[in-house]
Amino acid sequence: MSGTRRRTTSEHPGEQANRSPPDTPDSTKAPSNPNSNPLFGHRPTIMVLSALGAVLGAIAIRTYISPASHGALAWSASDVPSQAQVINQKAFNVLGNVPPATQANGSSQSHAHFDRRDFWRPLFHEAVVWYPPTDEVFFVQNAGAPAAGTGLNKSGIIEKIALSQADAVKTQSNATGQVDVVTVNSTPQIINPNGGTNYNGKIVFTAEGAGNNTPPALYVMDPTDPYNTTVILNNYYGRQFNSLNDVAVNSRNKELYFTDVTYGYLQDFRPLPGLPNQVYRFNEYTGAVTVVADGFNLVNGITFSPDGSIAYVTDTGINQGFFGYNYSYPSAIYSYDVQDDGTWDNRKIFAFVSVGVPDGIHCDSAGNVYSGVGDGVHVWNPSGKLLGKIYLGTTSANFQFAGQGRMVICAETQLYYVTLGATGAAITDYDFSTGY
Ligand SMILES: *[C@@H]1O[C@H](CO)[C@@H](O)[C@H](O)[C@H]1NC(C)=O
Ligand SMILES: *[C@@H]1O[C@H](CO)[C@@H](O)[C@H](O)[C@H]1NC(C)=O
Ligand SMILES: *[C@@H]1O[C@H](CO)[C@@H](O)[C@H](O)[C@H]1NC(C)=O
Ligand SMILES: *[C@@H]1O[C@H](CO)[C@@H](O)[C@H](O)[C@H]1NC(C)=O
Ligand SMILES: *[C@@H]1O[C@H](CO)[C@@H](O)[C@H](O)[C@H]1NC(C)=O
């Protein structure tokens, strides 16, 4: 989605005041099998690439977590990285002071304080796509936020970095200016791209459109210069979509599934919505477009389990755009069973997010679910239990795995390069030119 951000606001009594390891092992703090926790699996380091300046500069990297490797089935103090923050979830169960929603407002309860007013500019927003042939990561600016300078007359742009550059500075805590953020001049220009994924050797973007006369569309872009782009879908039987948000390819049927939400209207750059918040499915070869799910408040991110059998969809209803925040609405991830014929069944709530809203969502190769939320990226096991956080202290709208043990996280004014003990779900790259 566009325009979501949050600053951390207060201390939480349940968290440790520092990032020291616990003195004693505590089974209430640990997952039953630590090897299943990608955040503590093996020797990850998490860095921050932080953009504080112009589009083509300014990236900082900061190390967050460097866990020691281990093979034991129980945690001990030495398993916990010195920088990691271990949270005793039981300590949150009963609190002395529980503020009402208008005061708590879904903000992160944390000791970390940030003030970004001096350098707020949403350069690093969504549509994060790793392109293996060049080992580059593409992403887009925030189209909705006023500070992005987009809106009816302009468009959020696509940018990219080379991971070789990020990797070369990964031991630094702040590598501002050492990684080039390169503008990708898609031709013709993609108007307000927001979501993206690998598709048929190229990248498919969901674009939100602008005004009355630039309808939202699916664009396919060649990831190499001159970045030729082609519109492959821009309507539902003659009706404009509202503002396409995110897209994923199902690994079983290779089809595109994408979300359409009313944020373009709620952020003032699209007219009144003409369709419900829905998830669509598109087969480029046959041209068939169908609706697979509705009933959302504000549908947003979408992904599949590695085997394609489960769909995960986020609903960011709490953030009502220019209507403000309403904490009685969803901040949720729903799961569906993907049937053999590609339709969806068995909607379940998978997780409710307590900090901000769940926006972009991706699975690792083990089926753990990651989503960008109000204080970084949260990680759940396939049963919806929170395994941990890649804690940034600021909102991440989206992020992407970049192969084995690497991740790039967009956090609006910061770009983070992360190494961790997990690998992204395999990319489904399929040539549709000959059908199935
Ligand atoms: C949340 O509460 C904090 C502290 O009262 C306030 O500064 C912030 O503006 C609020 N955010 C929203 C979105 O209401
Ligand atoms: C777009 O440009 C026109 C002409 O310059 C201007 O009148 C209008 O206010 C602009 N709209 C936005 C949303 O910036
Ligand atoms: C990172 O480095 C840049 C450039 O040297 C500097 O402007 C910025 O304040 C640094 N950020 C942090 C968090 O230290
Ligand atoms: C890109 O588009 C231009 C203009 O249509 C065309 O001449 C060129 O061959 C295309 N390049 C690629 C790599 O497809
Ligand atoms: C939140 O939504 C509920 C249900 O639609 C509504 O009754 C309430 O007035 C809304 N609250 C705010 C603050 O908008």
UniProtKB/TrEMBL annotation:
Record keywords, A-Z:
Membrane, Transmembrane, Transmembrane helix
Pfam families, alphabetized: SGL (PF08450)
- Tell me which domain of life the UniProt entry assigns to the organism this sequence originates from: Eukaryota
Mind telling me which residue stretches traverse the membrane in this protein?
A: 46-65
Bias regions of kind Polar residues — which residues?
17-38
Keyword Nucleotidyltransferase in the entry? The reply is no
Q: Where does the signal sequence lie?
A: none
Ranges for region Disordered: 1-39
Could you tell me which residue ranges the SMP-30/Gluconolactonase/LRE-like region domain spans? 219-405
UniProt-listed Gene3D superfamilies: TolB, C-terminal domain (2.120.10.30)
Q: What name does the UniProt record give this protein?
A: SMP-30/Gluconolactonase/LRE-like region domain-containing protein
* Organism, as annotated: Saitozyma podzolica
